[in-house]
């Protein structure tokens, strides 16, 4: 069995409902759901948008290989209305980022694990820090807590109560 850590993000449409749908679809296809962070609201990172993002980190136990998980994630993004453009960052109905796969480092053309920018993004580190603060990043050799303390991202990220 493998442990996969995933970040969901949405800032178009009914983001809260889209995140719930993505969680349900992932659970039905990946395996055993282990835990979820709270929802976090943040400003767009890397581009300007009038719509705030909702983000949530999910952890699953799965027997699937990482490329199978990537295909499932892309299919779910499409099912939930994601339209990809090659013009950089943009608003989206659903974004599914694969953050960690066990403690492995994977360098493939279409996939890098751990996610190569997670340590730069407060909207990723805050929910990660909530549910796995002592997890050690396999490439940077720092805990999520340490990465959060040293993160220079100053965009507002707020934990939501629901």
Entry keywords:
162 residues; Alpha-Beta Plaits; two-stranded antiparallel sheet; 4 helices; 8 strands
The count of helical stretches stands at 4
Structural class: alpha+beta
Q: Write the CATH homologous superfamily.
A: 7,8-Dihydro-6-hydroxymethylpterin-pyrophosphokinase HPPK
Shape summary: globular
Low-confidence runs: none
Q: What share of the residues does DSSP label as strand, in percent? A: 25-35%
Radius of gyration: 15 Å
Number of strands: 8
Quaternary organization:
single chain
Average residue-wise pLDDT: 90
Question: How would you sum up the major sheet?
Answer: 6 strands, antiparallel
Q: What percent of the residues sit in helical stretches (DSSP H or I)? A: 25-40%
**CATH topology group:** Alpha-Beta Plaits
CATH top level label: Alpha Beta
* Total number of domains: 1
- Topology as H/E string? EHEEEHEEEHHE
Describe the structure.
By secondary structure, the protein is an alpha+beta fold. It has one domain: 7,8-Dihydro-6-hydroxymethylpterin-pyrophosphokinase HPPK (Alpha-Beta Plaits, 2-Layer Sandwich). 29% of the residues lie in helices and 27% in strands. It contains 4 helices and 8 strands; from the N terminus they run βαβββαβββααβ. It has helices at residues 15-30, 66-79, 122-131, 144-150, and strands spanning 2-10, 31-36, 40-42, 53-62, 95-101, 106-108, 111-113, 157-159. The strands form 2 sheets. Strands 1, 2, 3, 4, 5 and 8 form a 6-stranded antiparallel sheet that branches. A two-stranded antiparallel ribbon has the order 6-7. Helix 1 (15-30) packs antiparallel against helix 2 (66-79) and helix 3 runs antiparallel to helix 4 (144-150). The longest helix has 16 residues, at 15-30. The chain is globular and about 40 Å long.
């Amino acid at each position: 069995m493998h442990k996969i850590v995933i970040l969901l993000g949405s800032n178009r449409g009914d983001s809260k409902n889209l995140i719930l749908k993505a969680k349900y679809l992932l659970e039905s296809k990946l395996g055993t759901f282990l835990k979820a962070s709270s929802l976090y609201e943040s400003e767009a990172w890397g581009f300007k948008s009038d719509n705030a993002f909702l983000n949530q980190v999910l952890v699953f136990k799965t027997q699937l290989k990482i490329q199978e998980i990537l295909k499932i994630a892309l299919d779910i993004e499409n099912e939930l209305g994601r339209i990809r453009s090659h013009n950089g960052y943009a608003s989206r109905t659903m974004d599914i980022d694969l953050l960690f796969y066990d403690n492995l480092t994977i360098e493939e053309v279409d996939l890098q694990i751990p996610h190569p920018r997670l340590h730069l993004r407060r909207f990723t580190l805050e929910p990660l820090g909530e549910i796995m603060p002592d997890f050690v990043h396999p490439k940077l050799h720092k805990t999520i807590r340490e990465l959060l303390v040293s993160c220079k991202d100053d965009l507002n990220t707020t934990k939501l109560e629901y």
